[in-house]
Amino acid sequence: MAGCGGGKRPAVQDLSGRENLSLFKLQAIRGTRDGDRLQALATFSDSSSILTVEMRFAIGSPTRLESGRWRWSRNNQLNEGTVAARSVTFLGGQDGPPSIGGTYDLVGGDSAALYRITIPVSELKR
Hints:
By secondary structure, this protein is mostly beta strands.
């Protein structure tokens, strides 16, 4: 299959299969840890629009997504909703910055998952 990329999942997928979002890449992820809470902000872009995903994690065993919101302004329309975790990867960072990754569904107003984002385990920049 052309452009398969060796089994690497695209950063952003349209779960309806209507759109090819393969041009979207994770532009930046940053965040701060405060005790057992981690606030993270990820941005994805294809250079014409920007998808912003804010997530709040409860750090523990396992670390879990506590809440999340996403906003995506494209084609003169603003889409937004909540975030649901499919998998979360958290790497400590007791003596360094924490790292977060995983797969998350972006849920629309009708509680249906519209998009799926995949974040490789990334060190959080402040």
